[in-house]
## 1
Amino acid sequence: MRISELSEASGVPVATLKYYLREGLLPPGESRGATRAEYAAGHLERVRLLRALIESAGLSIADVRRVVASLDHPPATRHELLGVAQRALPAAHRDHPVTPEVRALVAGLGWQVSTDAPALHTLSGAVAAARAGGIPLSADSLRRYAEAVEGVAVVDVATVRELEPERALLTVTVGTVLVDPVLAALRRLAQEGLSSRAT
Amino acid sequence: MRISELSEASGVPVATLKYYLREGLLPPGESRGATRAEYAAGHLERVRLLRALIESAGLSIADVRRVVASLDHPPATRHELLGVAQRALPAAHRDHPVTPEVRALVAGLGWQVSTDAPALHTLSGAVAAARAGGIPLSADSLRRYAEAVEGVAVVDVATVRELEPERALLTVTVGTVLVDPVLAALRRLAQEGLSSRAT
């Protein structure tokens, strides 16, 4: 299809598609002369992915570029997949030191996590930020949150295991950021649901 | 304390504090003449809260203003508290229609949720966005995610119940946004922990 048709099929304006091309987020179409290029179904899928990452997950262009680069250069083995995905994801508080509390929590749960996992820094920084903001986040609450979240990860890991490797990377990387807003919305509904049940 | 001391105690530059004052995010200090104002411990607590909301939770100034306004005008009864908090929170996909799938999910879980809860729209939109981005989010996975997230909300609701009412509003509103990044980091660590255990 031509770029105008790609625009129509995806609902994304041609100017935005050209921006994605310039930024290297969308691979170029196959050249059909000096002023025409042909786009395929894979381009449409990529454009939909870019919209979801930018609009729904709220990723910056720099973050989207890192996620997309990981998809374009998938790791050789399934074993490396999770590490590649985790490193491609945006992680706040990257420079926050990993706290002894977080190390102890992860060890206590029996999670085998690489010592330099970005999420160890993110978790340490996010816990410190919540407490600095006045939230009484006790070590006990944190452990109970972690146990509940393990149930979320069980679903994540089961979903990925059913997929062929090239879909698995997309699902881990993109699924982690695109499902975060789903989980956040569920949390708000569950709070209201439980609260009304209790009163 | 003077504004320079408030700056030192909070680590936030005086220019930023003046911006918070102009934007109405920080209540004015008590006047001590034409060019001096006196700030109290409550101001320091508010500045720390603003930093956490802006830096860690990544809220826009407009979102922060809505959260802070809800804290400055707390509801009269504990029963209203959750609704006020939920409406003060930023919610993506506010204009997305609530899907029959989401209504059925919530009903199936026995969550009593007001029919116009913003999170119903957010959840419907986030599910649609994840699927548009190529994530195979089945109705069954969604239900299993919701059951796991219920465990998170149990901790939320228990924490709030132990607090006196004025802390409770802060904890529900701010805790929901400040604990979201904690949960997201835990999810990444749990994925890695479970994945290494399984292989």
Note: The mean pLDDT of chain B is 85.
## 2
Amino acid sequence: MNRIITIGRQFGSGGREFGRRLAEELGIGYYDKEIITEIAKSTSMSEEYIKSFIEGKGQKLMPITIGHSFAHIDNFQVDNPAYKQIQSIYQAQSEIICSLAEKTDCVIIGRCADFILKDYDPLRVFVYASIDSRVSRCMAKKRENENFNEKEMRKHILNLDKDRGKYYEFYTDQKWGDKENYDLMLNLSYKDIPRVVKRIAPWFTV
Amino acid sequence: MNRIITIGRQFGSGGREFGRRLAEELGIGYYDKEIITEIAKSTSMSEEYIKSFIEGKGQKLMPITIGHSFAHIDNFQVDNPAYKQIQSIYQAQSEIICSLAEKTDCVIIGRCADFILKDYDPLRVFVYASIDSRVSRCMAKKRENENFNEKEMRKHILNLDKDRGKYYEFYTDQKWGDKENYDLMLNLSYKDIPRVVKRIAPWFTV
């Protein structure tokens, strides 16, 4: 069985950079946005459209109740075309993630991969950081056209976390970021990520 | 500054064995029950007596409110000789933990060392495991004179965790086992601890 590392991460924690560098260091596959490209290929939807569903629009349609059982979902939602669409995106995403795990050793970022791949015995990592550290990281990395001040950035980060949590909980019936659902939890507050990766990589190679 | 690794752990998770083996593997100091021996030396109390205060009797005197501010504690408690005694045990313990951290690289198990040593920039590890894994580990390791069945063992474990949590929260104003208070969280459910240590030790040596 291939060696699979799944990485869940709080927004702005540096989890994506950590995962990318870890995959480089280990010389194994790395899948993040590539998954969206693959979904687009396997469906008739554009990458932009899929992204908007996964990262925002989709969550708005989800019931507040945690749990993906249809018992929680009223008829309106089940019949809602947008709801059907997020279900088919999730289905395509699950198939693609499983086929990646079949193909090669890899790091997979987000997208409930820890849950989808539970039969593949992945090493389930969750990366987090203090909110101050995340605000400071995001302010340093923000694009020129982003006008958030620190207060707005903090709100933006917490909102994105809320969406991620809701998405994860909806499909997995598990609480996002709860230690019970991961093998390793890493606090990257104010950490030098390349240095952390150099330190931690040997652990994954034995 | 010495390299300090503090290990908080859920009861039965294997955190103590993990810490002992990690210290051996790294060739650095290991302090666990040794701290109680040192407290006994520096006070007029017996090891047994100190242990009973730290691991049970002490918690019973603590107010339910989290926070060590005296505002939460009524006069009865402040004047209570037993209360004074747990305070002086904690004081002695803090001094001993700081002097160990001054002396040598080391692993320190429990005893709020992550909080007491915050100025020493320790690597703060928390070890946990599923309740089923912990029950199974404790049943396999139980002494001949312990008659717990599985159900009783589960209750015993959860009670001990509750005491540990209360003790930690009382002195630190932080929630025990919350990821924000640690650098690394390790899930040892059903894990082969010697193997985990061999895999993870290189990380601590870079």
Note: Chain A is about 55% helix and 10% strand.
